[in-house]
Every structure is written in structure tokens, then in C-alpha cells.
Amino acid sequence: MKMEEIITIFQESNALLEGHFLLTSGKHSNRYIQCAQVLKEPKVTEKLVSHLAKQLEGKYDLVVGPAMGGVIVAYEMGRQLGIPALFTEREKGEMTLRRNFEIPTDARVLVVEDVITTGGSVQEVVDLVKKAGGIIVDVAVLVDRSGGNHVLEIPPISLVKLEVETYSPDDCPLCKESQPVKPGSR
Ligand SMILES: O=P(O)(O)OC[C@H]1O[C@H](OP(=O)(O)OP(=O)(O)O)[C@H](O)[C@@H]1O
Ligand SMILES: O=C(O)c1cc(=O)[nH]c(=O)[nH]1
């Protein structure tokens, strides 16, 4: 699957938004990748996740992704790899494992996500898994828009890397024209 084909899928799904956005990290940006628009099509999700899975060389006991964006990616990855798929959720802002989900001691874990900007959300999952006794083998994401400026302790494997501007709120040129909108849940 060529990079242009992947980008075309995102474009045709209307997942590549332009405007003035407030991101999870508190940063601002003129572009937002609304992965939900891609992931709403099961066949497209199957194809993209299969392409991501081809890049994975590790052996995993389970896959974990943060809600909301990581839930569908984790589920489809777990389905394709034949392993359980868990998701984490925030409780009062803190990433947690709920619903009696458990990570067995020394379980080899693949962490997945739809999109990363700072990688902060995924690192929270990594920390949670390690604290629970799991071993992080890989981190894999559909879209890496970090430009390499992420906080992740291991380099993420990605389907596509996008070069996107982000601004600190104090230094955002778009704020002169408009208020940012917040498409995500945080
Ligand atoms: O790399 P980061 O700087 O942490 O940003 C990326 C995070 O932001 C989005 O989720 P969001 O918090 O908007 O929640 P949602 O998936 O529930 O909409 C996305 O799914 C990642 O989790
Ligand atoms: O950083 C984010 O919050 C973010 C950026 C983006 O392009 N898409 C998304 O879902 N979240």
C-alpha cells in the first residue's frame, strides 16, 4: 500500500480538517486528523490496520489502546493478531484500566493509537501497562503527526507520518482571527 493511497483514504474520508483547533495537549494547530471518519468504515479500518500490522515484528500477548481513538484500532489489531484487545479510559483525567481489565505479569504488550501529536496520551498508557506488570514491546499508531517531537520512551511505528504545524497557545497566530475549536474529547 503506497503512502499516496493511504493519504487518499484519509482525504476521501474527510478526515483531514483545516481550521483552528485545540489539541489534547493544549497546543493549537491549523490541521486536525479526525481518524473517526476513517475508522467508521470497517473495511477501511481492516485494510489500514493490516498494513500497520505488517510492520510489526514483535510477539504480543495483548494489545491496549486509549479510549476513544485507540479503541477501534486496538480491537481490529487484536482481531487480526488473534490476541485480546483492552482499552484504557481516563477517570478524573488519569489514564486507568477499568471494567475488570487486567494485564498479567510479564504480558508482552502492543500499545496502539489512532494519532499522536506529543505522544503524551500513549506514554500514559505505557506507564500504566508497566505499572501493572506488563512489558511494552511496541507502540504502533495510524498517524504520527509529532514530527519526531514526542515524549514516548520507545519510537512509535506508524502507518503514515504527517508534517503538521502546532503552536503553543501563547504563540498561536490563528488566535488573532478566531477561537480554537476542540474536536476531541479532552
Ligand atoms: O499525542 P497527544 O498529544 O497525547 O494527542 C493525541 C491524543 O489526542 C486524541 O485523543 P483525545 O484526547 O482527543 O481523546 P478522544 O480520542 O477521546 O477524542 C488522540 O486519540 C490521542 O489520544
Ligand atoms: O493532538 C490531538 O489532540 C489530535 C490531533 C489530531 O490531528 N487528531 C486528533 O484526534 N487529536
- Principal-axes shape call: globular
Strand order across the biggest sheet? Answer: 5-4-3-6-7-8
- Ligands present: 1-O-pyrophosphono-5-O-phosphono-alpha-D-ribofuranose, orotic acid
Please, what is the average pLDDT? Answer: 96
Flag low-confidence runs: none
How many angstroms does the end-to-end distance come to? 32 Å
Computed over alpha carbons, the radius of gyration is 16 Å
Helix and strand run:
HEEHHEHEEEHEEE
* Biggest sheet architecture: 6 strands, mixed
Structure description:
The chain is an alpha/beta fold and 186 residues long. The chain has one domain (3-176): 3-Layer(aba) Sandwich (Rossmann fold), CATH 3.40.50. 27% of the residues lie in helices and 29% in strands. It is built from 5 helices and 9 strands. It has helices spanning 3-12, 36-39, 42-53, 69-81, 120-131; strands at residues 16-22, 28-33, 62-66, 85-91, 94-96, 108-116, 135-144, 157-161, 166-167. The protein has a 6-stranded mixed β-sheet with strand order 5-4-3-6-7-8, sandwiched between helices. Strand 1 (16-22) and strand 2 (28-33) form a beta hairpin. Helix 3 packs across helix 4. The protein is globular. The model has no long low-confidence stretch (mean pLDDT 96). The structure holds 1-O-pyrophosphono-5-O-phosphono-alpha-D-ribofuranose (PRP) and orotic acid.
